[in-house]
Amino acid sequence: MQQKQNFHLTRRSWRHAFQKILTLSFASLFLASCSTPPAVLYSDCPLKPASISAQRLAQPSLGPLKPAPIKFGVPFSSAEIGRLNQSFAQTLPLTGATAASITIARAGGGSWSSTAGLRSDGPKSFWWASVGKMVTATIILQMAEEGRIKLDQTIDRWFPDFPGADRITVDQLLTHTSGVYTYNYDRKFRHETGYHSSAQLIAIAAAHGPDFCPGTQWHYSNTGYVMLGKIAEQIDGTPLANIVKRRIARPLGLKSLRLLTRDSTPAMVVPYKGQTRANALVETVASGAGAGGIVAEPKDMIRLLQSWIRGPILSRKSRNHALADIFPMFGQDMGYGRGIMVIPVPDARFPTIWLGHLGGSPHSKAVLVFDLKRQTYVAAVLNTGGKGEALVNTLLKALDGP
Predict the structure, then answer these.
(1) How many C-beta neighbours within 10 Å does residue 245 have?
(2) pTM given for the model
(3) DSSP assignment letter at 129
(4) 12-15 long-range contacts, CB within 8 A, separation 24+
(5) Who contacts 315 (Cβ-Cβ below 8 Å, separation ≥6)?
(6) Where do runs of H (alpha helix) occur along 191-264?
(7) What is d(CA 92, CA 75) in angstroms, rounded to the nearest whole number?
(8) Is pLDDT of 4 > 90?
């Protein structure tokens, strides 16, 4: 009984664990609720693209952000591994997931991985949902470093027929301050199955009009990141899947990381809980494209986040720019920069900040974070919309010990 109290594994503590973060259901990051923000007309908005005037959070104290490199070949101590194994076995059933995979790695040395519900001859890669936005944003920031795009330029160059494109900037798409309607709010879309092309998703947003004048507010927009993916394709002259491979996966040696496309096969990704059609998840993932089409194993996702923080996938200047403006997400303490989330973790014993990205839908829950106080990376993914954040928090407490 004492162990359960130490590891916060009782059902009562599970319900209350991480309650500030769980106030927001991260299913809304891919399939949002039915409530739709009131729309405005672009004719109500200034002709000159506005600088971002939306409310910002106070700049968090993130420290020097120079963690030591990961050493996956160095395991945690036997005592730490024992606590993590016990905590994972006791906690995972509470999430409702039938399959999950998680890796924890401490900067400088020490790591642990575990999986559950995976067939030995089946796929090992999971869908990371909106965590994929971090990849899309990284590609755009790379292109800005190369001088091939300016973040303050308007998007009418790439979307001449999109309403208000001459008022919306690339940076506003990155920061979710563009006002572009998110396609998953559309009632018809929510009741449809099968693949949707990026053009179809962007057309849904165009038909609805903006949620607000560009730059004046913050609201999560999957459409905005689909548009960023299409911008990257037009700049590099090749499909986004090729860009992800050439710019991200290959340079970092991430053999499992890829962007699923309509031509991908179900054998490439772990199916979601209750999936009845073999290709259902591939269709969903491929539809998301730049908004969240990445599949990978957890170790490769940790390598991705480490490279984002330490380099070389982004320069320090670009990384700092991604964190320069942090906007409150849905009125909470957690905030959004440019393809990156800053997540305060309220805890009486060990308050900390997570830096990374979360993702979720009814089919997946994904957490990719760097715990600043513990100097520890975590990549966790479940094949259902379970309580991934609370699972990660519980495991980190188990790693701390009694």
Answers:
(1) 17
(2) 0.90
(3) G
(4) 14/91, 14/94, 14/387, 14/390, 14/394
(5) 145
(6) 198-208, 222-236, 240-244, 250-252
(7) 22
(8) no
